[in-house]
């Protein structure tokens, strides 16, 4: 009985290993092509590894749900799940495999979907290897079965090391893209502040209407607000303190004149 079970498990392991290596090739190809296109999966939900937003977004269609995900900066949204009944959209990040769910439609970036499927196959290989290792040893003069089990375990470990290396490369590419986006955004915001400041100075020296100066200062304020994270309590407190100091100084100067 144990011989038959071992044979079936090893057959299943070999088949899964072939599928896993093929999936890794797909992941590598998608990574080189930077495959960010969305794949639609009917009657499916996709949860990735973490949420982009705590609550669902109200949308009317799957296309609107996909657009909400694509609009998240730095490609932080990897996929979304659209609930056809409630017309809501769940935005998720990370990588993962889709699960079957009636009444839902998943829209996932191709690379993250393939990485999730590869991870699922890797977990399946690990479980099969554990089951094979728990079987009682066979009495054999050349110990062929033990050698086969050892070969399978070694092959799996080699594949796991290669997957970890590929995943690290993918995460590094994504971090580099996010850093580049932040640098470009900061450069544009600094340029806008300088231009608004120049406009305010010229308006004062050339005697332009006061509305021009006021508009330039409002522009500077809006750019500064967009550059800081007011959801952080420390940043919000510092912003209120600075704003209060500026308003107090302005009122003091006005009173002295």
Textual characterization of the structure:
There is one protein chain. Strands 1, 2, 3, 4, 5 and 6 form a 6-stranded antiparallel β-sheet that branches. The model has no long low-confidence stretch (mean pLDDT 76). A hairpin with a 4-residue loop joins β4 and β5 (88-93). This protein is an alpha+beta fold and 257 residues long. The chain is 66% helix and 13% strand. The longest helix is centred in the last third of the chain and has 62 residues, at 144-205. The protein is built from 6 helices and 6 strands. The protein is elongated. α1 runs parallel beside α4, α3 (110-134) runs antiparallel to α4 (144-205) and α4 (144-205) runs antiparallel to α5 (210-227).
Helix content: 55-70%
Average of pLDDT: 76
Low-confidence stretches: none
Overall shape: elongated
Give the class from helix and strand content and strand pairing: alpha+beta
User: Radius of gyration over alpha carbons?
Assistant: 28 Å
Order of helices and strands: HEEEHEEEHHHH
CATH architecture of the domain at 2-170: 3-Layer(bba) Sandwich
CATH superfamily of the domain at 2-170: Hepatocyte Growth Factor
Biggest sheet layout: 6 strands, antiparallel
Highest CATH level, the class of the domain at 2-170: Alpha Beta
The percentage of residues in β strands lies in 5-15%
Provide the descriptors you would attach to this structure in a database record.
6 helices; alpha+beta; 13% strand; 257 residues; 6-stranded antiparallel beta sheet; Hepatocyte Growth Factor
Task: Give the helices and strands, then pairings.
Layout: H1 2-32, E1 38-45, E2 50-51, E3 57-58, H2 62-70, E4 79-83, E5 88-93, E6 99-109, H3 110-134, H4 144-205, H5 210-227, H6 233-256
Antiparallel strand pairs: 1-6, 2-5, 3-5, 4-5, 4-6
Helix pairs in contact: 1-3, 1-4, 3-4, 4-5
